[in-house]
Amino acid sequence: MGLPKIILKPGKDMPVLRFHPWIFSGAIDAVSENIKDGDIAEVFSSRGKYLATGHFQDSSIAVKIITFKQQEIDRNFWYSRIAAAFELRKQLGLVGNPGTNCYRLVHNEGDSLPGLIIDIYDKTAVIQVHSAGMYLQRDTLADILLQLYDNKLGGVFNKSAESLLKNTGVQTDNGWLRGSGSNCIALENGCRFAIDIEGGQKTGFFLDQRENRAKAGTYGKGRKVLNMFSYTGGFSVYTLKAGAEFVHSVDSSAPACKLAEENVVLNGINSNRHKAIAADARQYLENIETGAYDMIILDPPAYAKNTASRHNAIKGYTALNVAAMRKIASNGILFTFSCSQVVSREQFNAAVAASAIESGRRVQVLEQLGQSGDHPINIFQPESEYLKGLVLRVE
Ligand code: SAH
Predict the structure, then answer these.
(1) Within a 10 A sphere around the Cβ of 256, how many other Cβ atoms?
(2) CA of residue 301 to ligand 1 center, whole Å
């Protein structure tokens, strides 16, 4: 029988030969008759040469490639891939670290596991799949995690309902695959955060900002900080601990604001120095007085989900940064981010430059920031560098 086959159109094998992990539907000439969403299939060139093996899905991204070598995709295969990802996190000093017990164990194409995200929060693993193929592996993956962590994990939670529906149309519920335990305290660079595994956004916390939050701490001392798009107060806790005069956390989500307040207290910080405000970012920025803050952090959600919305997203980033640059105190520090995969670093930098011109302020770039090492970038897929940031000084 063998695996279902996918044959590419003539000349469409170049991206695969350059190890790009996706095959778009337009590149496909023919597929095996009975192929279903989530099947593991082998991809061949128009001349019949084996190219790759991946998960098939009847959508614009038709194949997410899991290997470029013809081999059996069994439990051992998944185990070795996840063990390799674990090895990298050990190398990064994230495993058994007394100051940090939360990290991304598996990051999609960056770990050669397209469609799969696994985040670790202390003794809980959260799996988020983005393809039908990875969804079918969820039980195998949960068992592998228990084995890899020597049965020390208390629970494995599947949080794929939203990501799966969005990417595949498959309807599922979130739920515990192994064990249980909804809330946990994560430790990140010595800061404590209550994580709402079941109810929080994404897998519960935005781990990609770990190093940038620490960096913000180094600028925070004595400052009047506005943490915009604060979620559960990640940047707020770091800047408060570093000695900020006060921090205002602003987020449109009231539950996130409540957790931000709890997280400040959890870190032994006097809550007089912090206020969480549930509000819309642009409205809030419009209404504050110029000079009220001398450090502003802008970490908005992805403004562009696909290339069709890129232009509007760039306009959105420009407007947001203009608003912050107009209001920040003289010689203020502005941390500004984009996590849109389809907006490149060059495009983001250009948007921020346009903001500087429009605001009429003189702006210097102090540092360029990105995603932390447990969110590795697949060098053959430039779009996997999704998080871009700048530290600016606004004169
Ligand atoms: N900086 C955070 C992560 C931010 S994620 C951290 O370090 O953990 C983006 C946040 O923006 C989410 O919490 C979301 O609720 C919030 N958000 C989305 N749209 C918003 C808006 N228009 N105004 C304010 N906050 C918004």
Answers:
(1) 20
(2) 6
- Shared domain for 374 and 256, answered yes or no, is yes
Residue nearest to atom 19 of ligand 1 (CA): 252
In the chain, the number of structural domains is 3
Ligand 1 pocket, CB under 6 A? 201, 206, 209, 229-232, 234-235, 251-253, 256, 280-281, 299-301
Protein residue whose Cα sits closest to atom 7 of ligand 1: 234
Domain housing 28: 5-67
Who's near 371: CB < 8 A, 6+ residues apart? 208, 377, 385, 386, 387
144: CA distance to ligand 1 center in Å? 33
CATH number at residue 44: 2.30.130.10
Q: Token pair of 292, please?
A: 């009220």
Residues 10-53 have pLDDT tens digits of 999 999 999 999 999 999 999 999 999 999 999 999 999 999 99
Ligand 1 atom with least separation from CA of 235: 7
Same domain, 79 and 167: yes
For residue 299, the ligand 1 atom closest to its alpha carbon is 1
Residue of 257, 247, 251, 252 whose CA lies nearest to 226: 247
Q: Which atom of ligand 1 is nearest to the CA of 251?
A: 25
In angstroms, what CA-CA distances link 392 with 246, 322, 325, 371? 20, 13, 10, 18
pLDDT tens sequence across 185-214? 999 999 999 999 999 999 999 999 999 999
Element (H, E) at 42: strand 40-44
- pTM beyond 0.85: yes
Q: Does 314 lie in the same domain as 248?
A: yes
Q: Is 102 designated active site?
A: no
Q: How far apart (Å, rounded) are the C-alpha atoms in residues 283 and 383?
A: 31
- Nearest Cα residue to atom 22 of ligand 1: 280
Residue of 231, 240, 299 to mutate, ligand 1, most atoms within 8 A of C-beta: 231
